[in-house]
Amino acid sequence: MRIDLTGLRTGPSQVWGALRLVPLLREEPVENLRLHAIAYGDAQRSRVQITNKVSYHAYIPHGFVADWNRDTGDGEESAAFGTQIVGADGTVQGMPVHFHRRMTKKEGKRRVRFLPLHLAMEGYLALHFGGPTVAWREWSDRVIRNGLSPRTEAAYRGAVVPGLQDALRVFEIHEGQCGVLVYSADVLAAAFVVPHPDDYRELHPTLLLDMYGELVYQYALMMPAVQEFPVRLDEARIGSLAELRAAAVGQSRVWAGFDDAAIADALLEHDYTAERAYQMGDFDLMRFRPVFRPGEENHIGEAIVDGAGRIAYLKTFRLSEAQIRRGYLLELLAAHDWRLAAAAASIDTTAEGLRGRIRAAGFELMLRAKGE
Amino acid sequence: MISTGDSVAADVVAAEDVLLFVNAATASTGQREFHTDAADQAMSLEFLHEYMLVNYRELYAATLALGINDHNATLVIRRLLATGRHATAEQKRAEGALIARRLLVLPPPRVFRLFKALQRDGVNNRRTRAIVRDWTLALEGPAYHAVKYRSGFKAGLKHAHIDIGDGELRDFLFGPLKRKPYQTPLLESWRQAHYNSGALYRLPYTVAEGFAAKHGIDRAAFLERIGDRMTPWEKLRAGEEPPEPLDPLELASGGAKYCGPPQPWLTRLAVRILAMPLDERADRRAELTRALRNFAAHEAGALAGTWGRVTAVLDDSFSSFGSPVKRRRPLAVALACHFLLEALAAPGRYTPLWVSGRDDPLLVHPGGATPLGLRLVDALETAPERIVVVSDGWDNSPPGLAGEVLRVWRARLDPAGRVDVVHVNPVFDARALDVRALSRAVPSVGIRDAEDLVPLVELAQFAQGRVGLPELMAYLDGRVRRFLGAD
Fold first, then answer.
1. Of A2, A80, B240, B324, which is most buried by a Cβ count within 10 Å?
2. The domain containing residue B195 runs over which residues?
3. Mutate which: A16, A21, A244, A249, vs B, most B CBs within 10 A
């Protein structure tokens, strides 16, 4: 799958310290799919039951609700505001563990509740979760029996990313804005797209509740302020007020298109492995992961695409280098039927070298100790 | 009264520093702003005050005569009193007069808070005691202040060793329940309120509130009965319709009279109007516009119609919302400036340009980006004699275009400075230690109430470096004399 942002164009960016927010504008909003937010209160952690035996634990401060087929006349009832769809499990506060049944849950005839980014993150964590498919001698008993469980990853809550709160607060939302690209030290940190400007206005603050990769946090913390677009008027060429106006208008136009070139190439030029999490009418809720390539930008995420593959909703998470490496190793091993020697040969190293990499990636428990 | 510097360079620096400080002390109230929080503001102010005190003590004291706001005035007084030992006798005399005069203009709660701060800081020299004593003994209705601001009043008395005689007031403050009954009605009500819930309604609102809680009186019933004991601002805070005689709207329509020290009624009315829903503003359009025009005409006074052709660039972008503690303040200042400039300009020669492109001043609301640059070009095209920009200076669409437009305009199209461009900024940018300027080519001055616009435009000429320190001193001397003489 490829990410297709047809129908969206970038607006002029707004800068706050090391963070740059580039608005994404839609000429025509997607009318028949809408999103709402549910806040889950301050439960310290939540538990999501994936199957009978597998569960996902995380800090989940909010969820999204998608309504589809809205052109059938119930537009009045489901305006962007209002959380009338909060289920019985959605409002209880103060419980130490919040229990969700599955990542996506039907909440009505044409309505589904899902947990943003956690859907994608769970997809990443569950990658080859079952462990080796063939019980080769090199793998430990534990991984053969239990798979990779428990698999953990850490991320930063938006509220602790330095400056993000202020950047979102002072951000002036544009007319028709349906999304935003968050850059941290001019590296893409997250992309967020919704179907309708009203949804965006409502969901803009939820960016603070999302999780962000380690790199995003560190760049926001340590990098100097990024450059704003440098406006320059050439005084030698200006001899009258009309020329001054022409020059000023010209600069404004260049500025408005300044970020077009930069639009998320890292996101768009990759192929993704996608899997469908839920089907809603013409729309599909997908989660996707990249072909893991160490040393490059890799994003996981989730999207709602229409029949033609256009994006109605998108949310991405920038993986850290260690996370990419873990994904890469698992994919590599799986591709070679979990045979260490074959996998090592394919990347021009020895089995011992590959063992070293597996250990360094934090998967030491997978390997059978010598002499066992 | 003010000594001059040695070299020209030092003069320029001194003039710049003074203006920088006046900008900060006018615009900042130490509260949170749209872009910076309260802690930042307080820290920046702290630094500026310290810097001014150490380097330019006389000028620092003289700023009390300028339009610096009450928050900063108390900070100045605190610092001057605490460091009296570094001042000469002549300096002390000048400071004493300025402080005593300024205390009279400050609202009593601020003065009592200042006394408590002096007590906390351990500032207890003869001059401080004399100043506290003179102010306290000159109070009209000491019993009222003693009841309403009991702890502050007492702190002042104790700290300055003031002898208030053997009367009831002394008993009330230092042994309140020993004497009964009191002869002064207010003190007697206070005594009775301890056991009689009916008596508390004769007390000032803030005091009665405590007794109401003690007697467990229902809040709604309490608010209804206490009504006429609240000050107008207390009423506004309690969410009620404010009464005569101090509602700016009432004052404007002639339904009430106000006699007292001058107050920024125009800006207050603008704040009040911006707090109304858009529908109500549209319904009462004629009334509100007339009210604003009346106040503006009153403020402009003899200067009305003398500014010639004026164009205003007024900021109603999203950031003019201010912050939850200074709600819509920058926008209110812009709205008040709009009507004031309309009165100051020659009839029919005034052009307002809101940055959002909307053109109905009564229905302004904060929203959108700040394309100041293009609006400035629009303003220059109206061929005015004077351009006034009211904005927080966050020119972000595109960033810095306004500065470029002004630079090129000054460099190429108007090197002689025929058009007078002034930027007044209601927001102090704590990180830059100054109000955010648009360009070096035009002066930027801080503003708190639109009423200060005229003196600030006067002051702005110093910021451009066209006029030197001696002239600034002369100007300050004039302001100080006017301030002290206007009893």
1. A80
2. 8-237
3. A244
